[in-house]
Amino acid sequence: MIKVHVKQQNDEIVSITVTGHAGFAEHGEDIVCAAVSALTTNTVNGIDRLANFQPIVEVDQVEGGYLYVEMRTDISSEQFSIAQLLLKNLIYGLTDIETQYPQFINIERT
């Protein structure tokens, strides 16, 4: 199962941690893992390109199944707003996947 932990403070996203594998299908054919990977990668790239800063990112390059994204504090309010919009859009997309495949992805907010 993919587990998503969204840490929020004052209704703003501070960090997102994604761990695990969906187990929907064999490696390379798992549409749930592929969808989650596409959404998360696109969000991190979008923050870099549209908000013009690189968030704090940790990934497991060897095993996969781990992504940590954290907002930085040394950015402008405009950069922050753009990044928050992208992160909230990510959560909407992941929630849609969770609605369709609840046994393969779980989102927790704290």
3D architecture notes:
- The chain has 110 residues and is α+β, with helices and mostly antiparallel strands.
- It has one domain: Alpha-Beta Plaits (2-Layer Sandwich).
- The chain is built from 2 helices and 5 strands; from the N terminus they run ββαββαβ.
- It has a 5-stranded mixed β-sheet, covered by helices on one side.
- Keywords: Hydrolase, Protease, Ribosome biogenesis, Thiol protease.
Q: What is shown here, in short?
A:
This protein has 110 residues and is of the alpha+beta class.
Architecture in CATH? 2-Layer Sandwich
Determine the fraction of residues in helical runs and give it as a percent range: 40-55%
Mean model confidence by pLDDT:
96
Profile the largest sheet.
5 strands, mixed
Mind telling me the C-alpha Rg?
14 Å
**CATH class assignment:** Alpha Beta
- Strand portion: 25-35%
Strand order of the largest sheet: 3-4-2-1-5
Distance from first to last alpha carbon: 19 Å
User: Can you tell me the residue ranges where pLDDT is under 50 for at least 5 consecutive residues?
Assistant: none
Q: If helices are DSSP runs of H or I spanning 4 or more residues, what is the number of helices?
A: 2
Q: CATH homologous superfamily, by name?
A: Cysteine protease Prp
Total strands: 5
Count of spatially separate domains: 1
**CATH topology annotation:** Alpha-Beta Plaits
Q: Briefly note the structural class of the backbone.
A: alpha+beta
Q: Can you write the helix and strand succession as a string?
A: EEHEEHE
What is the general shape?
A: globular
